TrEMBL record:
Associated pathway: Polyol metabolism; glycerol degradation via glycerol kinase pathway; sn-glycerol 3-phosphate from glycerol: step 1/1
Domain of life from the UniProt record: Eukaryota
Entry's EC annotation: 2.7.1.30
Keyword Cell membrane: no
PROSITE patterns: FGGY_KINASES_1
InterPro entries: ATPase_NBD, Carb_kinase_FGGY_CS, FGGY_Carb_Kinase, FGGY_N
Residues annotated as signal peptide: none
Carbohydrate kinase FGGY N-terminal domain location: 65-300
Chain coiled-coil ranges: none
Lineage per the UniProt record: Eukaryota, Viridiplantae, Chlorophyta, core chlorophytes, Trebouxiophyceae
Name of the protein described by the UniProt record: glycerol kinase
Amino acid sequence: EDPISIHLSITLGTGIVRSNRGSRSSASQLCPQHIRVSSFCAIPIPRTEPPFKINTDHTQAPMPLYLGLDVGTSGTKALLYDPDKKQVLGRGSIAYGVQSSRAGEAEQDPAIWIEAVCTASRQALQGLPAAQVRGIGVSGQQHGMVVLDKDNMVLRPAKLWCDVTSAEEAEELSRVYGTTLVPSFTATKLLWLKRHEPDVFAQVATVLLPHNYINFWLTGEAVMEASDASGMGFLSENPRLWDWERVKAVDPRLCDCLPPLRSANEPAGRLQPDAAERLGLPAGIVVGPGGGDNAMAALGVGAVEEGTLVLSLGTSGARGLCMAFHMPCIAWRAIDFSQSLC
């Protein structure tokens, strides 16, 4: 009485099926609960119906491809991925440096990232069907401060995660917040900007992080993904909400400068025509929310099960633990990536 796996051997009109044991049985003699259909279901077809129309067109719709971008501290990388074949089809990379005019300073012009994204993407797409690309995902270095004016123009070079000129501001905000903030965190850099470049700070209309800025250039929409936002120092115990009291401790005006938060399953937008032309891609394809590079790297190495520990050694070092529930950070030295690792 073992279940029968049907191999699609149907005789028209009689409903004859062939089991994996080679025996022949009438479909009318088989109880439904004894049949396990692996791919098809055997249904008697009356002889009075017209014969099957055999499809001789063996062409298939082109398989979707996806472009991955990583905007790092020392360079930008691009990968073109085929999820059907589980293969990387193309690669591209561009290296660049860090600007520093004094001790502790580390800055980059965001325009360098845009040029690198365009060049690396075209390298990855060279000789491959760009028209089949259906989506883009961006990861990026975390914590960097990108400030835009009311016309969405970059006001100054981005202060990177490794810029420690805001050490005094980090100590001050740590006392105010009652928890440890290091100079890497964006909140400390914004307080530094307010004190050291007040004319620039007065023009700030939007605050973004590096990968958010790339998403903004791609889509024209200013949004922020939760895993990256968790490294700013402004996120509340609920990882999808800004802690406005923390924001006001730097400056109340910043409450109008932080973009809406997006979770890991919400797109950042769609590729706008100008960016599509520079990348050599179809306009309108989906741009995913992406995330901070450490969170995205953890997903990339398969840290999707509870208890998996990830150690990342690069320009910086980081450890991450995959958990089945959200655990509020005890100290800001621990960055909550739960919205990307869910």
